[in-house]
Amino acid sequence: MSTAAATGPGVPENMRGRIGMASLIVAEISFFAVFIVAYLFYLGKSTTGPQPGEVLKTPIAATICLLASSVTIAIALRALRAGSLGGFRAWWLATILLGAGFLFATALEWHELIHERGLTIATNLFGTTFYSLVGFHALHVTLGLCMLAFVLAASLRGRLQPADAERTEILSWYWHFVDAVWVAVFSVVYLTAR
Amino acid sequence: MNPGSPVHAIPDMFSPVSAPAEAIRQLWWLLGGISGAILLIVGGVVWWCATRFRALPGEDREPPQVYGSNQIEFAWTIVPVLIVFVLFLATARTIYDVQAMAPPADALEVTLVGHQWWWEIRYPGLGVVTANELHVPASVPGAKRPTFLTLESADVIHSFWVPQLAGKTDVVPARRNRTWVEPTETGTFLGQCAEFCGTQHANMLLRVVVDSPGDFAAWVEAQKRPAVADPLVAAGRAVFESTSCVNCHTVAGTGAKGTFGPDLTHLMSRTTIASGAADNVHAQLRAWIVDPHAIKPGALMPAMKLPDDQVDAVTAYLSTLR
Amino acid sequence: MAVLDRSLASSSPGEAVRLPVASRLHDWVVTADHKKLGLMYIASGLVFFLVAGVMASMMRIQLAFPQNDFLGPNTFNRLMTMHGTTMVFFVGMPMFFGFANYLVPLQIGARDLAFPRLNAFGFWMFLFGGLLLYFSAIGSEGLYGAGSTPDVGWFAYAPLTSRTFSRGNATDYWILGILLSSVGSTATAINLVTTVATMRCPGMTLRRMPLFVWILWVDAILVLFVLSPLTAAQVMLLFDRFLGAHFFDTQAGGSAVLWQHFFWFFGHPEVYVLILPAFAIASEVIPVFSRKPLFGYPIMVAATICIGMISMSVWVHHMFVVGLEPGANTFFAASTMAIAVPTGIKIFNWLGTMWGGRIRFRVPMLWCTAFLVEFVLAGLTGVILATVPIDWQLSDSYFVVAHFHFVLIGGLLFNIFAAIYYWFPKATGRMLDEGLGRKHFFWFVLGFNLTFLPMHVPGLLGMPRRIYTYMPGRGWDAWNLVVTAGVAVQAVGILFFLWNVISSLRGGEPAGDDPWDAWTLEWATTSPPPEYNFEEIPTVRSRRPLWDLKHPEDPDWRWE
What we know:
The complex is a heterotrimer. By secondary structure, chain A is mainly alpha-helical. In chain A, 74% of the residues lie in helices and 0% in strands. In chain A, helix 3 runs antiparallel to helix 4 and helix 4 runs antiparallel to helix 5. The N and C termini of chain A lie far apart (66 Å). By secondary structure, chain C is mainly alpha-helical. Chain C has helices at 21-30, 34-63, 73-107, 116-139, 170-198, 211-243, 256-290, 297-310, 326-338, 340-354, 363-386, 388-394, 398-428, 434-460, 477-507, 545-550; strands at residues 141-142, 145-146. In chain C, helix 3 packs antiparallel against helix 4 (116-139) and helix 6 (211-243) packs antiparallel against helix 7 (256-290). Chains in contact: A-C, B-C. Chains A and C meet through helix 1 and helix 5 of A and helix 5, helix 6, helix 7 and helix 16 of C.
C-alpha cells in the first residue's frame, strides 16, 4: 500500500448526482411497468362499458406539448452552459408552459370522461387501470413542474449560475424520463384504443 | 356408505392410493435421495475442514495463500448443472403426466365450491348436492373411473388438498381450476383447505369417502331422494322454516332454499358437521345450533338465540334428515 | 501512511466526555452519520426481532397441542400476519441496510454515503413505517372491536384484502406501514448504489472491492428493481379499498391471481435481498478466520450477479398450485432449479476457502460454519419444492415453513449473529464475551434444529400452514410438541446473546483497532471509528490492503 502507486477508480466528482438520478429512474420505471402490465392485462376484460375505443381520443396536442418540452429543456441547458442566463430563463419558461399545457389537456380530457362519458376509476376495469396509469404519469409531470418552477425562481433571483449546469442537467434527466413514460403510456393506452 | 371402509387418520403423502399422488411419491424418492447424498457430502467436507484444518494453539504462521483455481471452479459448476438438468427432466415429465391428463368419457364430474369456511359439493351429471364430505367411486379393475373436479370459489381463495389422493390445487374466485383423482382403495381420506382464507381457515376440513362402485351408486340414489318428512318432528320443521335458517340452508322439497350455507337435505348421511369441526352426533348438533361460535369461533352462521324447547325441536327435526 | 498509523488509534472507550442524555439523544435523532444510522438500523431491527420472536413463541404455544385454547383464531391470524411482515420488512431489511450503512463506506475508504441526509430520511421512513404498522394495534378499528392488527397474512392475497372480507382499517395499516418503509428502502438503495459507484478510495477498482461490498451493491440494485412493483401493487390495493377501483375485485372481472404475480415478483427477489447480506457476511468472516483469501473471487462476483438476475425470473414457484398452464410451471421449475447452481458455487467456494487454512473457531466462525451446513439443507429442500409436482403436495404446508426458516434463520440470522460478533468490537471498541458467545451459539443452534428439523415432518404428513388449531390423531401431535420445545431452547440462546451484548457494552474487554488480524479497510481505523472515518483517505493496491501492509514480503498485489 503506497500512495505512489495510487490509481484511482477514475470516477469524476459529478457522477454522484447522475448515478443517483439514474437509480431513481430505474425504480420509477419498475413502478410504471406494473401499472402498464395491469393495463394490458385487463384490456378488453371490463364486464361493463365504456370501452377504451368508445371514449378515448388521441391526445395529439398534449403529446406535442410534452415532446416539445424535452427539446426546449435541452436548449435551455445549452444556453446555461454557454453563459446566457436570459436564454436559459426563456427556454426554461417555455418548458414549464409546455408542461402546464400538457396537464391542462389532461384535465380537459378527464373532465369530459368523468362528466360526459361517466367513466370514473370505479366504473370498470378500464377506468381503474386508465386513471391509475395516466394519473400517476400526470402526478410525475406535476412534481417535475414544481421542480422546474423552483429552478426558475432560483434563476430569477440570481441564484443560478452556469456552474450549476450539471445539477440542472440531472433535473432535466427526470423530465426526459417523464416524457419517455408518456411515450409508453401513449402507445399502450391510446394507440391500442384506435 | 360402507361401514367396513377404514378412515385413514393420517393424511400422509407417502401412502398414496391415487394416480397423481403416486407419481409425486416416486418423484420424491428421486429428489430425496439426491438431496440426502449432497447433504452428506457437503456436511462431510465441512466436518473434514473443521477437524483437519483447525488452527492448533500457538500456531501463528499463515497458511499458503491460495486465490482460486479455474479447473476446480469449472468442475463444481458443471456437476450441479448436470444434476439440475436431470431433476428438471423428471419434473417436466411428471407435470405433463398429471396436468395434461384429459378426462375419459365415463369420468365422474364433480364441482367443488369453496366457501368461508366449508365446501359445497355438486355432481352436475347426477343432480346431487352435498357438503364437506366428497363421495367418489373407487377405480377398480374392470370399472376404471377417475373423478375430475372443477374447483370454484364463492368468496376468497381456498385450496383443495387431500394428500393421499392428489396434490393441492387452489380454489380461486372467478376462475375454474381442474384437478383429478383416481383412488384405487375404498375408505375415508382426510384433507383440508390449504390456502389461508380468513378466521376459520383451520377448521375448513374435507373428507373424501371412496366407495366401491356399487356403494357409490347406492349413495347417489339415496342422495337424490327428497328430504324425509317425518310427522313426528313437524314442530321442529315449523321452527326451522319460520326462522332465518331457510335464508342460508336448503332442504330439498321444502321451502328452505338458501345456498349460503350447506345443503341439509341429507344431513344425517354425513359423519361431521361444521365442515369437520365437530362429529355429527346429537349433542354436538344441538350445541352447534345453540351457538356455532362455541365450536367454531368466527363462523358465519349466527347464534339464533332460540328458546331451549325450540332448539330441541329443531335438533330433532334435523336428526331425521337422512 | 498516516491512516494506518497505530499511534492515532485506540482512544479507549469510555474516555470521551459524557454529554447529558438529552443532547446525546438529540445527536442520534439529527445525525446523518452513516455509522450512527447503521447502528440505529441494526438496533431497531433487533427490537423488532424480539417482538416478532415473542409472537412466534405464542403461536408455538398454541400449536403445541391439538385443539389448544391458548389463542383464539383472530389473535392467531394477527400474530401470524405481524410475525411474517415484521420479520421480512422490519428485521431482515434493516439488518441489510444497517450493516451496509455501517460497513460499506468504511470498506471502500469513504467518509460517508453519497447522500448522507437522504440516508437519514431512509432510516426514519423505515422506522415510522414500522411504528405505523404497530400503531394499528391501537389505532385501527378492526372487525372485532377496537384494536386490531392486520390479519390477512404477510402476503395479503386478494380478495381476502378487499373491503368485503377485510372491514376496518387493519389492512390499510399493513399497506401504509410497508409502503412508507419501502420508500425509505428505495432511498437507501439509491444511496448505496451511488456510494459504491462513486465513492471508492483511490486504487479500489471494481476488481479490488471486498466481496462484501460487491454483494451488497448487487443487492441494492436488486432492491431498485423489485421494491417499487410491491409499492405499485399496494397502491392498487389502496385504490380498490378507498376509491372503489377494481384491480383485484373478482366480482368485476378483476383477477386474484394478478395480485399474486405482482406480490411474488417482489416477494421472491426479496428472499434474495434478505439472503445476499448473509452471503456478504460469510464471504468476509470465513476468509479471515481461515487465514486465506476468498477462494475464486471473480467467480463469486459472477455468481452473485447471476443470482440477482435469475431471482427476478423465478417468482411463479410460489404459485405452482394456482392452476397455471403446464408450460408456465415447467419454465419456472427450470429457472428455480437453475438458481441453485450459482448458490451451490458459493457454498463450494467458501469450503474451498476453508480447505487448507488454519481455521480459528472463534464465535463468528462458529456461526458461519453452522450456516454452511444449515444452508445446504435449506437449499436442497428448496430444490425439492421447485419440483412442481412435489410442490403440489408441500406448498402451503409446514414443510415450506421449515424450509424458509432454514433459509432465513440458518442462512440469514446465523450470519447476522456472526456479523454482530465480528464487527461489535469495531463499532463499540469492546469485544463480546467469547464464553457467553459460545453458550449463545450452542443453545441457539440446538434449539433451531430441534424446532425446524422436525417441522418438516408434519408438512409431509399433510399439515397446512397458517392454521390456529388442528385435530388430534393425524400424526402431527408429537412433532408439534417437539417443535414448540425447540423454541424454548432457542429462547435460552437469545437470553445469553442479550446478556452478552449488555454486559460487554459496559465491561467488555477493549478490542483495539484490529482484533481479528483482518484485511479490509475498516480495521485500519480506530474502534469505534471517528466521525470522519479516516484521517487521510487510504489508497489500496489489492483486495486485502491490510494483508499487504502486514506482509510486505508477500503482498497480494503481486498476484492479482
